[in-house]
Amino acid sequence: MTNRVAVILVAGVMAATAAIGAEGVALTDAGGKVRVEIGGELFTEYNYKDVARPYLYPIIGPGGVGMTRDWPMKENANDVQDHIHHKGLWYAHGKVNTVDCWSEQKAFGKTLHEKFLEISSGAKQGVIRSLNKWVSADGKPLCSDERTIRFYPHSDVRIIDFEITFIASEGDLTLGDTKEGSMSIRLPTSMSVKAKGKVAEGHIINSKGNRDVDAWGKRAEWVDYYGPVNGKAVAVAMMDHPSNPRHPTYWHVRDYGLFSANPYGIHDFTAKTEQKQPAGAGDLKVAAGKKVTFRYRFLFHTGDEKEGKVAEHYKKYAATKAAK
After folding, report:
1. Strands (DSSP E) along the chain, which ranges?
2. Which end of the chain has fewer CB atoms at under 10 Å, N or C?
3. What residue numbers bound the domain in which 146 lies?
4. How far apart are CA 136 and CA 52, in angstroms?
């Protein structure tokens, strides 16, 4: 290779990197955390080392405000300090072959990062793809998952797509009937509908029109949770893709800031309704060697569901197909 060609190649790489930094999504593995930058500024970090299960924290939304509760990752006088296992944005479940892989109390299962299949930056999107092992408290393997997280650059909103494929790699797998799960984010206390001893001015609305506490346990295509953070009106919408099993999903969305899509907890969600189902009705069984995939979108926007045009965004998301 001539010096002239080498200079041209180096210049091309530097130009491409600069373009990604200025407009696109840049990912950097710092050993234990993958830093995600949009337009050269921090958007989030994927924490995967020495944790009970991988999670995204912090997540910086429109206007530069944090869209996840800080505690227990760091102290914040405005936060209610409960449910230590509610960390940022994560996927977990309370009954994986009867093992609690949701909480972090007593004997609990973990999700262990095994390896990255892809970490890529780009002008249009950034991608993390990883392989993970779910284990019991004593380290017994339960199943595996392959997850793909995509980050998109937009001037007025932030978007994260989260796809998780459970693999029954250790024999038959049962994702059990419990409300404790699954695709989740814990919001800042100020966005909550209620909070003990703290300011909470948030609201919940779903695609069926159910509001605040009435949205819990209901089925819907999407839910929007909005409220103030540092004086700015912001929101997070979570969307259930039509290809998901049991779409539209049930929602374990709490007035204190827990926000979860949960297709499994049918017994809990119907217990006080005319359609109540027996325990175990929500069990989802995956035969040994088989797979099941779930896809979700998180939309971080300003204002309420109308200002954020959540219904319009959902229609676009519902029309997307799984990336190959």
Report:
1. 25-29, 33-38, 41-47, 55-59, 89-96, 99-101, 110-120, 126-135, 141-152, 158-167, 173-175, 181-186, 203-206, 222-229, 232-240, 251-253, 258-261, 284-286, 291-302
2. C
3. 3-318
4. 11
The answer on pLDDT for 185 being more than 50 is yes
Residue that has been written with the tokens 């049918």 in this structure: 266
Examine residue 86 and state whether it is found in any structural domain, yes or no.
Answer: yes
Helix, strand, or coil (residue 221): coil
What does the pLDDT read at residue 154?
Answer: 84
Task: Indicate the pTM of the whole model.
Answer: 0.93
How many domains is the chain built from? 1
Residue 323 lies in a domain: no
**What does 231-272 look like in DSSP terms, one character per residue?**
TEEEEEEEEE-TTSTTSSPBEEE-TTSEEEE-SS-HHHHHTT
Question: Is-contact 203 226, C-beta < 8 A?
Answer: yes
Contact 271, 138 (CB under 8 A): no
Beta bridge pairs of residue 166? 145, 292
User: Is 308 a domain residue?
Assistant: yes
Structure-token pair, residue 314? 């959902």
Please give the DSSP secondary-structure letter assigned to residue 169.
Answer: B
Say which residues have a Cβ less than 8 Å from residue 191's Cβ, sequence separation at least 6: 200, 201, 202, 225, 226, 227, 228, 229, 234, 257
